[in-house]
Structures are given as structure tokens and as C-alpha cells.
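One-letter codes give the sequence; backbone shape is given numerically. An example follows:

. . .
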Amino acid sequence: MKKKRCKSLVGLVMLLLLMLVPQYNVYADGEIDDPMVDISEDVEEPTAGIGITLFSTYISTSNVNLSVSGNKATCTADVSGFKSSVIKTSIFMYLQKYNSSTDTWSTAASWSVTEDSHTASISKTAIITSGKYRVKASYWAYTASSSENVIKYSGTYTK
């Protein structure tokens, strides 16, 4: 009788553990779908700016954009660090043109801004010719003892 009761108790504990362990879907491409974690707000859409970092220590938001009207490209970027720790921010912004023969991006124009603040923004224009363009933004956030760098790209524009 004690053996049967022990087996029942072990079975009940195992069933409870299975109910508490999160279930994951693993796909053929190696992607793991965890229903317990929603990171959809942290992941940038590829056309809106490709972010490398899902979580930043000091940078709370960063945006980069390329808009074109005629032959005038307007490049914008902004960054915001956590106010409680960030004392200085910098943005290094590059208008890049794609070279299809070498499959590389080269810098057509570049600008930068540094602010003694937890936020910074920059907006610049450049004249473009035919080709494929994007904006690369390198964001820096500085604290009293450390720094962090995040790089993002705008969507592309073909003229």
C-alpha cells in the first residue's frame, strides 16, 4: 500500500512539474518560440531599421530614417539613454551607397553630434544620384564609468 501511495505521489509531482515548465516550439531553422516571453516590441522590422541589440544597458531608444524627395536625401537619427545613468550621448551617422559590383556599402556623406545629455538627435541632407542608399547610425551612450554602442540601419532607397 505504501509503495502504491509513493508511486502516486511521484506521478503527481511529475505532472505538476510538467505543468510549470514552459513549453517551447523549436523550428527547423533553429528559431525557438517561447510563449512565456514577448519580445515583439524589442525587435525592429527589417525595413524600419535593423537592430543588432535586443537589450541595451544604457540606451533606451534609437531610431534612424532615410527619406528622399527628388535628388535630396534627408537622413535623421535620434537616441535616448536612461536618464538615471547616461550623462552624454553621441550619434555618428553615415549616408551609404551600395556598389553592386563589389557587393559593399561605401560612405557618401557622414555627420556626427555629441550632447552632454541623455538624448541626442541629428538631421542632415545630401544630394544623391542614381543608386541604392541607406543610413547607418552608430549610437553611443556614456555613463560616469562606462559606455555602450548600438548600430542600426535605415531601410534602403533606390533612385
Notes: Confidence is low (pLDDT under 50) at residues 17-53. The radius of gyration is 24 Å. DSSP finds one helix and eleven strands in the chain. Residues 2-33 form one domain.
